[in-house]
Amino acid sequence: MIGLIFGIMLLLIFLGMDIAFAMGLSALAYISVTQIFGRPLPFTLIPQKFMEGVDSFALVAIPLFILAGGLINRGGITKKLVDFANSIVGHLRGGLGLTCIVVNMITAGMSGSAIADASSIGSILIPAMKEEKYKPSFSAALVASGSTIGPIIPPSIPMIMIGAITGVSVGRLFLGGAIPGFVMGFALMVYTYIYAVKSGFARKDKPNLKKIIESTKGALIPLGIPVIILGAIVTGIATPTEAAVIAVWYSFIVITLVYKSVKLKDVYQVIIDSMTSAAGVLFTVAAGVIFGWVATVEQLGPKLTDLFFSISSSHIVILFLLNVLLLLMGMVMSTIPIILMMTPILFPLIQQIGLDPVHFGVVMCLNLMLGLLTPPIGFNLFITSAIAKVSVEEVVKDVLPFLLVLLMVLGLITYIPQIVLWLPNLVMK
Amino acid sequence: MINQLINCLVKLLKGLLVVVVIIMVFLVTLQVVSRYVFQNPTAWSEEAARYSLIYFTFIGAALAVHKKETLKITIFITKIPLRIRIFIELFIRILIIIFLLITLYYSFPVFSRLRNQLTPALRWSKSIVFMSVPLGSLVMLLCIMQESWQLVVKLKSTFKGGSSAK
Asked: For residue A34, what are the β-bridge partners?
């Protein structure tokens, strides 16, 4: 029966229903069926779980990080970061491409959303790359891939959700993503460099010390944000939610008092714009909790465990199968619904076979980021191809090598858990 | 009539959303400050922050439904011919209306059950916190009903337009 409920939900989602309502309705369908067969469940569960679904201090971090991101974007900080990164790596072959990855790694430390990063960075760097005769579809692919680092380097909205749903420490998940995020950035830069050499991009003038100092000065204030967020979490001064509020204050003060680029009236608009969509995300989380609860009642986790064990009891094989499953889902769905659907099912399995939930949480996150780069549902491709004014199909061709590079990173962190776990184990006992 | 009512409600909710966001920011700030400056974390600020998140979610979700900014996947549906698409969209709205009506109906028993339960730190009635769910659902219901009506009008016009074109 649970298969039928799952089917209803997927059908409704693909027919274009809001994901929150699709999850709520399939839970409603389940409760209705139990009135006739089996032990009847009360309908009051729906409104009640709606409330309980977002009754979590960890989730408070989601609107706060999105608000900080909205303020930063409005303040024109991305441009300053681009100048900074460009003064350091811009002179190399494919310098602008490398700049793009570096900027993505920095903004990854401020915002927790790949889609937000893709549009803010893409709108600056894709036109710039066009001027330097980069193939538009390549620049679109580059920005789309680079921005997947966003939710891997802390903060990360998907990780906050995984933590809130499973009870795994969000702080540990954040720390676990730090090193894999840098590995991703490094790997993408290596490929970009190789591509640049192959296409015969010219080297530019040697870096100019004066320019570096100047651009660093300009970027110093925004660079404080990732330093504060990571620093607060690493030293244990603040929980992720508290780090988020510090980021909100910092970006608010910077854009209103230091840069004076934004008036208080604009801040009101930023709050309305960014917070409406943030609430839409949280509403989906609330509905996802109702659905996840159905999955728990139906013992979907243990059933899946049995299924996996009937195939193999080796961690290597099970991790491989889980990665394939998530990659396939990532192709047809977006990140948040997959997290809401799969975490309540997969995490009991993970714990039962003795894998570290922090390790798997980060693997899952990176895996779902690849879903942003794969058609038919690859939101990053949609955004960057629109900015570059090329068709999605063209970008898909150029994104393939990037996808392969990121798949290698996924394999690396899947089978060498220390890459993920070393930092959280070092910092948080 | 209903359009004016919804516009009014949306304005009100926007103001409320901003207020709730500011409250949430101050509560979490208080949490940090009380822990580090006064060495004595307040229990109620953490609780109040969670409750303001619940209000935030349902006020904001109503606005998101109004602005059509909820998460959805429309890539497949946009490939379907217009008239069939409107039928499907209408069908989906009807399902959502049923869902919201059931949520509202069963909110009453939950509300009365929670009325006498007090929250641990603030000693408020839990029903105050819960009220956000039916309130948000009610506004969503109005918005979806308005959208459905617009779809019906659109559907009528495609039939008229279709027949006159032929």
From this structure: none
